[in-house]
């Protein structure tokens, strides 16, 4: 094997280190850093001068993020033999905390890496334009829709599939605390004695923002979904309400589904390229023939017989929010940083039809500052820092969001009693994680939250007479963008003349109205199958 340039230097470097390390005993150094959720500790194992392993001993990071990001940052640090490496995108603060912890630990070995800030990264690569890559299907976006599309395309017989994801970790917004709505004919429903049908689903879900054909396709997809997921070992065993599902009574659906989809994609040997951003469509004579992509400073084309877009929404793009839903751009969002609607300008440029871009879903309460979705149920009281209630009766979600934004500090306190605590899993979870404040009396709660006691007592008269009481600092947040590119019931994208665009499919939140978890998986699955069938 002939090794070139950088690779050869790397092998020589590691060989030299290994020779030096030979016969040396392993040593452990523990360092601390601050991540997204607070302090984390890393055990750095060395042999002589060589960093041989990293172990995350403790942390308060978001579990589905740290689980995906730590192996990546660990690999980077071991490969570079230094904490001066690029952050894992999608986990910037976790990466920063780990890098700091490693640098601190290695001080005991006499190493000084200087001041590591959030912006500290590895050496920049030269800009390079690479040869094009050819494949059968390219999928842009590695969230629920993209992963489902990759699996179903493979199952439908497509041989060569490339999935690109602009972050360094997969699963998009789907990996967070997610309830899976709109699932029918599930094992869990049957166990509950719930009889549900495609017809009933269509009747309940038909709405003027979407075509009846798409609602029918979603219903049929939802009917087959539980069996498909279970075939991959993904079990949604808890059904509540009519069609809502969680993995278990005390476990959300997001991690269960996303871990399972990622595992399956790996098993199927799909070429997954993380850290790779889709920039533009390659269009020839009205037909889409590939995607232009960027990986760090490397640019190349992926030519494909079919392209599936699964890039999610634009809740994190203030410019697009200001353009399409003016006034919403000042609100917080629950979404991860990559929900930036990168392809909206591409749709405009190529005269692809878009719809419902002004329609947003607002989540009532996210925690300040951690942004976890919180709250729920009835019987809570919302007060401002002065302890006063301020909401008008029955506000719309946007009115609530704007009222909270207008309060001191642009936040409010979500105050509740033991009855609400007992009825809501999310509140129990957040208390267990120490994210809410608990007190035996209203006086104590007021003190802990720095709210005037008399005002809080006055505002909370409708709560239970005896404690404990709870409180959390909250805002409302943009949760999903409902609009996007228009696709038909087979997920084929449509242009402004109403014609189907050859070679282009779209699924999930990037499309008009498919903005919800189950719809993303259902239409992702359809897109994979349709794209695979189109190239046979
Ligand atoms: C905190 C939170 C909780 C939620 N809870 C629920 C819930 O309980 N129930 C529910 O139904 N829905 C919920 N949602 C909404 C749900 O997560 C989304 O509807 C769903 O994730 C959409 O899937 P998607 O694959 O279309 O998009 P995403 O999950 O956004 O995935 C898109 C992926 O594409 C990548 N990408 C973007 N641009 C590019 C590019 N240019 N090149 C390459 N890759 C790109 C992104 O990085 C991302 O990984 C929640 C959302 C959030 C943020």
UniProtKB/TrEMBL annotation:
<keyword id="KW-0274">FAD</keyword>
<dbReference type="GO" id="GO:0008202">
    <property type="term" value="P:steroid metabolic process"/>
</dbReference>
<protein>
    <submittedName>
        <fullName>Flavocytochrome c</fullName>
    </submittedName>
</protein>
<dbReference type="InterPro" id="IPR007329">
    <property type="entry name" value="FMN-bd"/>
</dbReference>
<feature type="domain" description="FMN-binding">
    <location>
        <begin position="35"/>
        <end position="109"/>
    </location>
</feature>
<dbReference type="GO" id="GO:0016020">
    <property type="term" value="C:membrane"/>
</dbReference>
<dbReference type="GO" id="GO:0016491">
    <property type="term" value="F:oxidoreductase activity"/>
</dbReference>
<dbReference type="InterPro" id="IPR003953">
    <property type="entry name" value="FAD-dep_OxRdtase_2_FAD-bd"/>
</dbReference>
<keyword id="KW-0285">Flavoprotein</keyword>
<dbReference type="GO" id="GO:0010181">
    <property type="term" value="F:FMN binding"/>
</dbReference>
<dbReference type="InterPro" id="IPR050315">
    <property type="entry name" value="FAD-oxidoreductase_2"/>
</dbReference>
<dbReference type="Pfam" id="PF04205">
    <property type="entry name" value="FMN_bind"/>
</dbReference>
<dbReference type="Pfam" id="PF00890">
    <property type="entry name" value="FAD_binding_2"/>
</dbReference>
<dbReference type="InterPro" id="IPR036188">
    <property type="entry name" value="FAD/NAD-bd_sf"/>
</dbReference>
<keyword id="KW-0560">Oxidoreductase</keyword>
<dbReference type="InterPro" id="IPR027477">
    <property type="entry name" value="Succ_DH/fumarate_Rdtase_cat_sf"/>
</dbReference>
């Amino acid at each position: 094997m002939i090794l070139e340039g950088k690779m050869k230097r790397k092998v020589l470097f590691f060989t030299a280190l290994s020779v030096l390390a030979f016969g040396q005993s392993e040593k452990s150094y523990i360092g601390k850093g601050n991540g997204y959720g607070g302090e984390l500790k890393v055990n750095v194992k060395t042999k002589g001068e060589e960093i041989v392993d990293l172990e995350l001993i403790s942390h308060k990071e978001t579990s589905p993020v740290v689980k995906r990001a730590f192996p990546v940052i660990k690999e980077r640090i071991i490969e570079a033999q230094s904490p001066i490496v690029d952050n894992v995108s999608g986990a910037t603060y976790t990466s920063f905390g780990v890098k700091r912890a490693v640098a601190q630990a290695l001080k005991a070995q006499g190493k000084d890496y200087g001041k590591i800030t959030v912006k500290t990264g590895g050496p920049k690569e030269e800009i390079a334009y690479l040869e094009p890559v050819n494949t059968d299907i390219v999928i842009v976006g590695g969230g629920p829709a993209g992963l489902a599309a990759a699996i179903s395309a493979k199952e439908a017989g497509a041989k060569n599939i490339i999935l690109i994801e602009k972050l360094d970790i997969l699963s998009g917004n789907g990996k967070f605390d997610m309830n899976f709505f709109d699932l029918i004919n599930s094992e869990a429903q049957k166990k509950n004695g719930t009889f549900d049908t495609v017809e009933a689903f269509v009747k309940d879900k038909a709405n003027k923002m979407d075509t009846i054909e798409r609602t029918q396709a979603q219903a049929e997809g939802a009917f087959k979904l539980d069996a498909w997921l279970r075939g991959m070992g993904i079990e949604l065993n808890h059904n509540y309400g009519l069609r809502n599902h969680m993995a278990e009574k005390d476990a959300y659906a997001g991690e269960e589904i996303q871990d399972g989809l990622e595992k399956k994609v790996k098993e199927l040997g799909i070429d997954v390229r993380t850290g790779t951003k889709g920039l533009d469509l390659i269009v020839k004579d009205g037909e889409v023939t590939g995607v232009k992509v960027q990986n760090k400073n490397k640019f190349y084309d992926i030519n494909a017989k079919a392209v599936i877009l699964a890039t999610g929404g634009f809740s994190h793009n203030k410019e697009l929010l200001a353009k399409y839903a003016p006034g919403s751009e000042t609100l917080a969002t629950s979404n991860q940083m990559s929900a930036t609607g990168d392809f909206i300008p591409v749709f405009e440029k190529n005269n692809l039809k878009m719809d419902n871009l002004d329609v947003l879903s607002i989540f009532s309460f996210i925690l300040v500052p951690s942004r976890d979705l919180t709250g729920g149920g009835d019987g809570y009281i919302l007060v401002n820092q002065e302890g006063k209630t301020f909401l008008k009766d029955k506000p719309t979600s946007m009115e609530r969001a704007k009222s909270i934004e207008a309060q001191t500090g642009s936040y409010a306190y979500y105050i509740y009693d033991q009855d609400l605590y007992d009825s809501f899993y999310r509140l129990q979870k957040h208390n267990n994680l120490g994210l809410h404040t608990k007190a035996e009396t209203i006086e104590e709660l007021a003190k802990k939250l720095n709210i005037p006691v008399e005002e809080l007592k006055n505002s909370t008269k409708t709560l239970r007479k005896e404690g404990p009481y709870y409180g959390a600092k909250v805002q409302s947040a943009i949760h999903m963008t409902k609009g996007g590119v228009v696709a038909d019931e087979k997920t084929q994208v449509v242009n402004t003349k109403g014609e189907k665009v050859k070679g282009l499919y779209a699924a999930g939140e990037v499309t008009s109205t498919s903005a919800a978890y189950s719809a993303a998986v259902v239409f992702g699955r359809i897109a994979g199958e349709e794209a695979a069938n189109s190239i046979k």
